[in-house]
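Same chain as my last thread, 723 residues:
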Amino acid sequence: MSSYDSGNDSILEMYIFESETLLDQLDEILLQSEENEELTPEDINEIFRIMHTVKGSSAMMEFETLAHAAHKLEDLFFAIRENGVDESLFEDLMDLVLNFSSYLKDEVEKIRNNEELSEENPELIEEIDRFLAALNGEPVNKAENQPVEVEKTETVAEEVVEEIDLILEVDLDVADIETEVMMELEEMATQEEKVEGGKNGCDGDMQVFHLHVRFALDSQMENIRAFMLVNKLSSLGRVLKTIPEKLNDNADAAGTILKNGFFCSLETRCSQERVESAAHSILSVETVSFIDKLPETEDDKKPVAEPESEDAKPKKEQKKAAEANQKNTQKAAVQNLISVDLNKLDSLLNLIGEIVITESMVFGSVQVDSIKDEVYEKASVQLQKLTDELQDIVMSIRMIPIAGTFKKMQRIVRDVGKKLKKEVEFITMGESTEVDKTIIDGIADPLMHLVRNAMDHGLESKEERIAAGKNPVGKVILSAQNVGGDIVISVSDDGKGLDPQKILEKAREKRILVKPEEEYSEKEILSLIMAPGFSTKEQVTEFSGRGVGMDVVKKNIEKVGGSISIESEKGSGTNIFLKIPLTLSIISGMEVKVGEEIYEIPISNIRESFKITQDQLIKDPDNNEMVMIRGVCYPLIRLHNVFHTLEEPYPIEDGILMLVDSGETLACLFMDDLIKKHQIVVKAIPRYLMRYIGDQSGIAGCTILGNGSISLIIDVPSIVDHY
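reply #2:
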């Protein structure tokens, strides 16, 4: 079928948006149903409605292939709604519908890109026909309830008899397989219990330990690390209480843990040494001490009223009630939402940027400085206030929760887990964190690659985890949190971790080492996995092993102004942190002077600024300049040399040093002077100029100053990495 050619047709744009939204809803319903192991009547009706809408809109737009495919799926769920679905077919049904959803999404993406649509997918259509036959076929019910008498008459065809015999054989095979699987699961559970008990020293009497844990001062995101610690301790027994109690989506928890430490009560049969060892296996845990009892909190002093009716309810009913409340809340909120074309928001943001620039031009002009009018001063202050509010509102319109991206990762974990035959618990935290739409689009692919890596590289097989004394079900944790003016996203797993020695050996083979091996710190060794062509995978698989991935992840994250860092401990797991700015359009910057030119440095990269004397300069064996700050040496980079603004060295006493952070590395930049901090509108360098400037120029973009002149924005990570 030919693609739909309509230029900027608003109807087509609406069709694409609606179809993508509905298919995302379909995935969400299916994944939730699979987790609950139940397809409720509400879910069946909602899926039927989604397919009916996709069918109708596709037919209206003359996409016959999509309309027919959606119609087949609609028929399937009509039959399920009338007859129900057998439990033995539930998992196959989930696989089928998710595969169908992927097929429809691919076709919609082709429409978006104005590509030729595929022909009908005969395998999926045939699979649906088989399901419909199984759901509506009366011969199956008769075969199950009463003997089938096959007579040699003209009314009974031989094909029907063969089909019935085949169905009976399949039913018998399924019953035999179910019996074997149950026996195998019981045997594995017994073996796992023995391993967890005898091997790990967890075969003693039941006792309660009260732990006080402190994390390293520079660890960051302490609440997420505490959450991972609780998950680890849960594999040894039952966690009774934690302080703070709520770790997920609690912005204050990290500060509380940093100040007071993390408290936890654990009921277990394991020894104290085993519990302490498990706690220390979590990255960035600095001290673990055992105390007599947990400190009393404000909640302990309040009388607790526990209604019996809630406790008496089964967990499944409570979960359903919570989901129903959430759905009602969402439905109420949807009425106040409208869809807006992103191009219109981009235009609005550009207009706000121009207003900010024009405002700085007006208030920065020489003539205005000489005006001493009270009315003018009040009006100018009010104008600045309104401009700031307008800017904040426009920026907030572009901010969307990261939950949508996180939900797409759940589908990836589910599909990859099935293909690799790994049982995985996927945990998300901070889904309500909001990020600029442009940045969301830029980090979707890197996140997908990191999650697949955690599944393939990080997590061991079920047998390997049991042999290592771990829970056979692995964990992948995806979290997001506001830290200052940035968003920190972490992808964590409790797998085998990274082996620094193995990474170093591979780097030596690939010849990507730039200095002697003994001079590499552990953090620098782990960063080597982001070099192009690097892979520790011995065998190339569908998911990894080709050496293209982590370097692309790093480039994409840096493209949106972010940075990536890695923490890992062999045998315990890996944490990968992405530090990303909230927005790329209007940022806070520091205006600095280098020679006769004015440059801008993003505030998010600045740690501190100070002055030094010539005596405080240090030189390494290669004659490179270094600066000692509180016992730590940092390289000194003279911006005059980077931008070739002076022929002779500028006296160190006359300038300013600024300690900057490029994500993984700290360095000192030397310049003439600091001028002022202000809001800057980021403008991209035109492509024809970038051909002459180059990628390693140390320039990230430009902005327009209040006097109308252009100032270049310094690319701190590029300068630090290059020099």
